[in-house]
Amino acid sequence: MDESFGTAFRCKKEEALLFSQRMAQLSKALWKSIEKDWQQWIKPYNLNINEHHILWIAYQLKGASISEIAKFGVMHVSTAFNFSKKLEERGFLKFSKKLNDKRNTYIELTPKGEETFHKLLEDYDPARTGIVKGAQPLHDIYGKFPEILEMMCIIRNIYGEDFMEIFEKSFSNIEKDFLNERGKVTKRLRNLKTQLLRQQKKRLKQIKLFNDLYKFIH
Length: 218
Fold this sequence. Notes:
GO biological process, one term: response to stress
Number of strands: 5
Radius of gyration: 24 Å
GO molecular function: DNA binding; DNA-binding transcription factor activity
Oligomer: single chain
Shape: extended
CATH superfamily of the largest domain: Winged helix-like DNA-binding domain superfamily/Winged helix DNA-binding domain
Largest sheet: 3 strands, antiparallel
Strand content: 5-15%
Helix content: 55-70%
InterPro entries: HTH_MarR-typ, MarR/SlyA-like, Tscrpt_reg_MarR-type_CS, WH-like_DNA-bd_sf, WH_DNA-bd_sf
Pfam families: MarR
Number of domains: 2
Keywords: DNA-binding, Transcription, Transcription regulation
CATH architecture of the largest domain: Orthogonal Bundle
Strand order of the largest sheet: 1-3-2
Distance between the termini: 104 Å
């Protein structure tokens, strides 16, 4: 006879075992591909995955505590602190204390750190990303990538609502601050500056053509 386990669970042991191991093995296989692509992406900037993740979180939170970095980066507090210190030494982060909170250490991106973060996004190449290639057939059929709602529900139940709020905020900020131009991710303000320069060059070219035509006629 099949028996369910515990009072809080309404599933059978065999069912739970198969599900957990299926998730474990699929996650491991997926992470191996993601890790390799992530490392190749950030390698030119001499960063590791934890350091890049810290830059990502610091960009979104605009002044995050070390404990927040650890929580949302899914890493130990000592790991978050040590890698943040290395980023500070390279001029990417600055440390500070708040007047009303002397116990926690806060970090914020420096102009150099923010510029590096922007360049990393601009350098991203989906053609060299395994998970994008793997999901491309689904995108071709449905017109978008999988929303992985079931996985997000599981993560929410494990890590809590705050974690998912920051997760969603981080990607909405990227969509708000950056755009896709000619297959590359670019900062909107930088894109606006580029457009203005193009318009200015176009006007100068038109003026030159008009002057040349005027000289020819007269």
